Amino acid sequence: MSAVTTTERISRIAAPVATGILLLLAWQVLSGVKIGRLSLIPAPLDVAETATGIAGVVGEDILVTGGNTLVGLVLGTVFGVLLAALAAWLRPVDGMLTPLVAAIAVVPIVALTPLLNTMLGASAQTGRQVVAAIAAFVPVFVNVLRGLRQSRPVQRDLFLAYAATGGQQFRKLTLPVAVPYLVTGVRIASSIAVISALVAEYFGGPTDGLGTAISSYAKTGNAAVAWTYVAAAIAVGLVFFLVTVLLERAVTRRRPI
Prior knowledge:
Blueprint (H helix, E strand, L loop, with lengths): L1 H30 L12 H10 L1 H35 L1 H15 L3 H12 L5 H23 L4 H9 L4 H37 L7 H10 L3 H31 L4
């Protein structure tokens, strides 16, 4: 059993490492192709050298994008949980929120960002944070609403048989069952929030942030710097993803029901 476990652990580490090496090799091969726009792809070593030289500036932009993502993720999660709880409690509210959430899910970020920047101020980060919050809201709402309805009738009958109050049933049964769905929703929302924050930065607002830098340097033809910022954006997304995955695993292991 221990040998199998050790093998599984090694494979879990080896698989992503091997994938990363293969991607780097493919990147190196493509950077040597001088056909059409493929000639604009810089070599990995060029990007690494550029990243070393501008690490301080890139770090500041990482903090901006990471901050916008975090604020949006927190806001989207809070509103998602509150409205999902309200929808699970009152069926008429669920009927009203369902088409609204469906409409929010298909709102194009590209079209929404300029409007929010105009409304909330083009020199503030607020519009970008709201875009990230809107994007994060949908998966959190959908998952939490589903989780709040996962308790089985036999479980609810058992609580009623012991004369449990509505509050006790919610704390001891409904909420513990819904928590794994919440962290799954947050995991999904974290990646979407990062992408949305980057897109919002790409299409206007203040001059800082990874998305703005990618747009600026790509237009000026400075490919090595642009790809450095792309790598930084990937790193931000991975950090949010890994943190929420660890949170999800911790909650799932401690699930009482």
